[in-house]
Design a protein that fits this description.
- With about 475 residues, this protein is α+β, with helices and mostly antiparallel strands.
- It is built from 16 helices and eleven strands.
- The strands form four sheets. Strands 2-3-7-4 form a four-stranded mixed beta sheet. It has a three-stranded mixed beta sheet with strand order 1-6-5. A two-stranded antiparallel ribbon has the order 8-11.
- It is globular.
- Keywords: Heme, Iron, Metal-binding, Monooxygenase, Oxidoreductase.
């Protein structure tokens, strides 16, 4: 009772969340005018900068409008840790409502029970927790992930061969570099999710082949999802043409994923097994059942292609514009040091400077005392990791590419461990952290290793711009030069 009285008095001293600083509001339209052309927030890129932090401080309020919820953004690592730790048992991370709708309706059509999983991307609460506990030992198991090093190196080597074919006389890649990186990422994640090579890197891949159809469907799914997630949500009230196209795209992609999984299962059944053979991720998922394998394939392909492609583009850009770091990395790779500490440091530093998303999000399940304000239940809170990871008081010389900060001793002022760990969170936090992070890191490590061993990478002109959507996309021109070593 005494504790309860103290909590009530503490809550009484807190300011209501409506008093949190934020853009000014007008009658009827609220803060909408700031997002219209010419408004201070009309360009989404402001959310990747410290503009809001400098103007309003470490906590910013956005009022809900036209059916969208109110949102609070935090630019304080310690405050972020309070909510992230407090929501770590069954965290709710709202996103991808159209995909959730498709998967939920599909479960109904197939006669599945109400508690049947739809996927780690789209589920929440106890359904999500049960499914995560089912697949976690498989996809987060280091020994299982290590099995793919040889296959992913093979994919990287094939991509390097393709890059050589695509170079012009100036050693630049002809065509769209971002699309090429997407092909590499899809081929890599396909090895894990679908159990084998898709041949995405084959220049003569027939247009009517399942692999070519999958490539086109994944690109289309990203484009359509972006439209539904970022536009006015009229599709929630009636089926718009874009909504119908998106539902068909999701369905077609699921059917092709199902085709590849069935094909992989047939090959596994025919394969002569020896006692020393270790099972890969798909085989272990199939041991549970085919539906679990299909759900995880859908999730991995949806979440793992654009993200990995964007990451390697950013890493190559930083290495190209810091030749001394590139040279240092090449020496480490030539030494055959299995730890590859500097390679890992380069990847981490690139993710700090150019993360693939502006931050993480949670829907609160209880009240919080945050920076003097009462944050109620059922409030959307965004953690601005992209901005925090470039703040001077967390990371000295924050805008510089310094991979060494990830490997120096703690006594060095640059050392990353001197920063609050919640200032940097490229793969999320805790129980809801990215289940594919070990696989993603291995993909990226093998590709960057292979490229740096084969090419001197250079860059000219301004840095690639960032287009902010459901994630941060690098946009061209991609002025890379790949010179043979």
């Amino acid at each position: 009772m005494s504790l309860s009285n103290v909590e009530e008095k503490t809550t009484d001293l807190l300011k209501p969340w409506q008093e949190i600083p934020g853009p000014s509001s007008l009658p009827l339209i609220g803060q909408l005018h700031h997002f219209l052309p010419g408004g201070s927030l009309s360009n989404r890129k402001v959310f990747t900068t410290d503009f809001l932090y400098k103007k309003y401080g470490p906590i910013v309020r956005f009022d809900g409008r036209f059916g969208s919820p109110s949102i609070i953004i935090l630019y304080d690592a310690e405050a972020s840790s309070q909510i992230l730790r407090g929501e770590n048992l069954t965290p709710v991370r709202p996103a991808f409502y159209a995909l959730k709708y498709y998967r939920t309706e599909l479960n109904k059509q197939e006669g599945n029970p109400p508690d049947a999983p739809t996927g780690l991307i789209t589920d929440h609460g106890d359904i999500w927790k049960k499914f995560r506990l089912t697949v976690n030992p498989i996809l987060m198991q280091p020994e299982t992930v290590k099995l793919y090093r040889h296959f992913l190196t093979e994919v990287a080597q094939d991509m390097v061969k393709r890059m050589r074919r695509l170079r012009n006389d100036s050693n630049m890649i002809e065509g769209e570099f971002d699309i090429e990186m997407n092909l590499w990422a899809l081929e890599s994640i396909g090895v894990v999710a679908l159990g084998g090579r898709l041949n995405c890197l084959d220049s003569n891949l027939p247009e009517d082949s399942p692999a070519k159809k999958l490539i086109n469907l994944i690109n289309e799914a990203f484009r359509l999802t972006e439209k539904l997630e970022n536009g006015i949500s009229t599709w929630k009230y009636f089926a718009t043409p874009t909504f119908k196209k998106t539902m068909k795209c999701y369905d077609d992609q699921r059917k092709i994923n199902k085709y590849f999984i069935a094909k992989a299962r047939e090959e596994l059944e025919k394969k002569q097994k020896s006692p020393d053979d270790k099972k890969g991720a798909l085989e272990k998922l199939l041991d549970i059942n085919e539906n679990v394998a299909l759900i995880m394939a859908n999730d991995m392909l949806f979440a793992g292609v654009d993200t990995s492609a964007t990451n390697v583009t950013s890493i190559l850009y930083y290495l190209a514009t810091h030749p001394e770091k590139q040279s240092k990395l090449r020496k480490e790779l030539a030494s055959k040091d299995e730890k590859q500490s500097y390679l890992k440091a380069c990847i981490k530093e690139s993710l700090r400077l150019r993360p693939v998303v502006i931050g993480n999000i949670r829907l609160t399940s209880k009240e919080y005392n945050i920076l003097g304000y009462n944050i109620p239940k059922q409030m959307y809170v965004v953690f601005g990791h992209q901005v925090m990871s470039k703040m001077e008081h967390y990371y000295p010389r924050p805008t510089e590419f310094i991979p060494e900060r990830w490997i120096v001793e703690k006594s060095d002022p640059l050392c990353h461990s001197n920063a609050n760990p919640f200032a940097y969170s490229p793969f999320g936090f805790g129980f809801r952290s990215c289940i594919g992070q070990r696989i993603a890191n291995l993909e990226i490590e093998t590709f960057i290793e292979t490229v740096i061993k084969n090419f001197e990478v250079e860059w000219f002109g301004p840095p690639p711009k960032i287009r902010v959507s459901t994630m941060n996309y690098n946009t061209g021109p991609f002025n890379f030069i790949f010179k043979d070593i």
